[in-house]
Amino acid sequence: MLKVALVGCGKIADSHASLITKIDGCELVGVCDREELMARQLYERFPVRRYFSDLEKLLSETKPDVVHVTTPPQTHFEIARRCLESGCHVFVEKPFTLYAEESQALINLANSKGLKLTAGHDDQFSPVARRLRSTVQSGYLGGPPVHMESYFCYEIGTTYARALLGDSRHWVRRLPGKLLQNIISHGIARVAEFMVGDSPEVMACGFVSPFLKSLGEAEICDELRVVIRDERETTAYFTFSSQMRPSMHQFCIYGPENGLLLNQDHETLIRLRGARFKSYLEKFVPPVLFARQYFAGSLANMAAFLRRDLHMRSGMGYLIESFYRSITEDAPVPIPYREILLTARIMDSIFEQINRRPVALQPDLEFPSGVLVHHNSQV
Amino acid sequence: MESDKYIVGHDDILLVTGATGFIGTKVVENLLEQGFRRIRCFVRASSDPSKVEALRAMGHDGAQVEVFQGNLLMREDCRVAVRGASIIFHLAVGGGSRSFPDAFMNSVVTTRNLLEAVASSKSLKRFVNISSFAVYSNREKSRRRLLDETCPVEKEAALRSDAYCFAKVGQDEIVKEYCEKFGIPFVMVRPGYVYGPGHDAITSRVGIDTFGIFLHLGGSNSVPFTYVDNCAEAIVLAGLQKDGVDGEVFNVVDDDLPSSRQFLRLYKKNVTHFSSLYLPHFVSYTLCFLWEKYSVWSNGQLEPTFNRRKWHAVWKKTYYSNEKLKTRLGWTPKVPTAEGFRRYFAACRTVEERHA
Description:
The complex is a heterodimer of chains A (379) and B (356). Chain A is an alpha/beta fold and 379 residues long. Chain A has two domains: 2-119, Rossmann fold (3-Layer(aba) Sandwich), CATH 3.40.50; 124-316 and 343-354, Dihydrodipicolinate Reductase, domain 2 (2-Layer Sandwich). Chain A is 40% helix and 20% strand. In chain A, the strands form two sheets. An eight-stranded mixed sheet of chain A has the order 13-12-11-7-10-9-8-14. A six-stranded parallel sheet of chain A has the order 3-2-1-4-5-6, with helices on both faces. The two termini of chain A are 42 Å apart. The relative contact order of chain A is 0.14. By secondary structure, chain B is of the alpha/beta class. Chain B has one domain: NAD(P)-binding Rossmann-like Domain (Rossmann fold). In chain B, the strands form four sheets. Chain B has a seven-stranded parallel sheet, sandwiched between helices. Chain B has a three-stranded mixed sheet with strand order 9-10-13, covered by helices on one side. In chain B, helix 1 (22-33) packs across helix 6 and helix 4 runs parallel beside helix 5. The longest helix of chain B is centred in the middle third of the chain and has 20 residues, at 163-182. The A-B interface holds A 9-11, 13-14, 18, 22, 35, 37-38, 41-42, 44-45, 159, 162-169, 305, 308-311 and B 44-48, 71, 74, 96, 99-102, 104-105, 108-109, 112, 158, 166, 170, 174, 297-301.
């Protein structure tokens, strides 16, 4: 029986607790939050053996095999380090740490102790993301990826915006990448999975949307555009937007022969055929082929729903189960450490650029108002 | 109201949390009308600046409305805010979150922080906790159809799959626990559905539009409406009344409550017409039962949002009483239901026209 503990009993902890308690062969032996009431409310709603407000007590009294860290990002590194030192495998929610150096330090510590780590990049394990991975591995792209486009959007409503903007002590403000740091990991990790090397070139442009400006915000970037290029010359665009509609969670990957289009919200994977039809057929046939793929995708989703296999958090469930299997069966971790590190490095570079003063524009090169241009930098 | 019946003087500090909210603003207004001159309003730092300004502007003729912008999750903010307060009207709620931890944190943890802050206070004479009808289970009552202050509260609130209910039950529990522990006099006020201009939604006790068409679920049920001014009056009275109210619970509903069907007819006639489909009680109960079972069978593919506990609490045929409120606090609804609806529908029409 795998003994699991959970540290941090906020919103995302509910998803973890709900999934952990459904996995055969494991038991939630304890939950912990610095605010005891929060630990208690989770304990009261899920089958959990005990609750704590002190991490040391949780570790010493329940002796968990695995600890899930679901606290605010500022605390991830210290808590994960302490858990590793206590001999626990650790699942750290996204963002893994605040800085790549911290990620590296955790990985080094885990390796030195023969323990395992993973990051909460669960979008990469949704059924459609797994289909994309296996299609790429089957060689459908016709070679290494040439280019990728990752959209990760977030609708920032007036209530949340006011809560964030009106509170100068809000923990999101204290993150190096502020709002972006708490959200963009999923979209960056998708790109990192298909990149090589560990020092891609990153060019980032971040700015405050007119919406947030209208509410008096001048500091928190809620719009981000990034260009990434790795050592193999594979490139990627990453887009984060709080304002564009539809608010997409989409990933495209193009190879030398074909491409793939993943839509996380619709749970569809569309094959983008590289070969062209002759003459006017190119205008008649591909739309029909696309329609057929979308229709098949809809049917597949309905079938999955009827099979009781279309859960909103299935990606997280799969990731947790894979991580546990990697522990119990000594199998490889579900997310290679290289990917975790690369994601952290790309994010570091983005935040370093958007926190830097913008380059002064030449009058004849002026961009539309509200757009800031930044230096590019090598990770 | 006569001032010799009050537990505080007109120059004592009265703290109102959630003062920019729908009910909070009316509570402040009511207190000023009663002649109280030192009202301290605890509002979120993120509150709408126009509402904060409106609060400040309420102070006149020697009456002070002090606005304290802070966060109830911060113990230090609570300590500063409660300093010297004689009555605390605790109206702040997490509001709107479907997440259990968020709702809990913004109701229970915040309330605990306030109570800890007043634990050693010598000035506090009463803590008025604003609870909700949502805490009643509406099952296993002694008098089958009547819901009053003696009815049982939901014991396993999480099973209703309603974060607001869970948080409010937790809030009531912590108020009782801390008030008993520290000897803080308290009163619980449980309003029914508070309506009025500025709150244009139709209560789910009447029906829901989750599935694209408005499902009318209330039928012939009474709806526990209370007009916002009447509710504010009841809250103020519960805070001020001198004798025999400490430790008591007061439900707040108006007189002449319409049935769900009557309300819907009036709404359609006075605000906007829309299609609705009536589901008799046995149908809504069966659907809730099936939804609940499907949620378990499908291993949570659908959350048990609709379930039998919810049906009992919201859609079961029930009558309501305001007798205790009238006899113990001398409350009467100043705004009759017909007038309340007239004002409410007029405000809803304005919102509709703006959307159009």
